[in-house]
């Protein structure tokens, strides 16, 4: 058994850990690539290009000689609306 008069030496230890930021650059690079890919996809989807026809979404139809028929149709529609009131 140990003598009770013996002194036990205290030992203080200080540990310092220094790290350098090495992972932030890779994360920023990956995030940058994702942003560029999403921007390109948004441009392609919302640019209005319709594919092979070059984005021609307008349809123009011309019927020659239909002037009187259109006027008669307008009159018939007006008559139908007035008759239903």
Features:
single chain; 85 residues; mainly alpha; 2 helices; rod-shaped
Which residues form runs of ≥5 with pLDDT under 50?
A: none
Helix count equals 2
Distance N to C terminus: 117 Å
Profile the largest sheet: none
Helical amount among residues, as a percent range? 40-55%
Shape label: rod-shaped
Quantity of strands, as a count = 0
Strand content: under 5%
Task: Tell me about this structure.
The protein is mostly helical and 85 residues long. The protein has a domain at 60-85. It contains two helices and no strands. The longest helix has 23 residues, at 24-46. It is rod-shaped, with a radius of gyration of 42 Å. The chain starts with 23 loop residues before the first helix and ends with a helix. The mean pLDDT is 76.
List the helices and strands and how they pair.
Layout: H1 24-46, H2 67-84
Concise account of the structure shown:
By secondary structure, this protein is mainly α.
